[in-house]
Write a structure and sequence with these properties.
The chain has 129 residues and is of the alpha/beta class. It is 42% helix and 22% strand.
Length: 129
């Protein structure tokens, strides 16, 4: 074997060893992903509504990623992200540091069926009275 072939094999071996070590370290970390936080936060809501429920969805900045996580977590419930489509029931997410007046806009004139708070969002499931 020539020196170049040996050097290439050594580089590949080092790269594989480094990648393996990084993967093992990453799998040992216990930090929760955003999706795991959403799944935990929304667990109680499945006890309030039947699996075929349909509801409107709103969140800060119309965050499509947050919508996708909630839709995945609550399946087979239907969440509508379409602005013109309104249902009697609505799931609204607000940032924890949102003003109290924002919370009042969401809950005034509606019945709160379920609510929860985590370190990032407040979750409100409301319906028309």
């Amino acid at each position: 074997m020539s020196f170049k072939n040996t050097a290439v094999l050594v580089c590949i071996g080092v790269a594989v060893a480094l990648a393996t070590a990084m993967y093992v370290e990453r799998s040992r970390q216990t930090t929760m992903t955003d999706m795991q936080k959403q799944v935990i936060a929304l667990q109680g809501m499945t006890k309030v509504l039947p699996p075929g429920a349909q509801m409107s969805f709103s969140c800060p900045d119309n965050n499509a990623e947050l919508y996708a996580i909630c839709r995945y977590t609550l399946a087979p419930m239907y969440l509508s992200f379409v602005q013109g489509e309104h249902f009697d029931t609505a799931l609204t997410l607000l940032r924890v540091n949102a003003a109290d007046s924002t919370v009042q806009v969401v809950t005034t004139g509606r019945r709160v069926l379920w609510q929860n708070t985590d370190d990032t969002y407040r979750y409100y499931l409301t319906c028309n009275p």
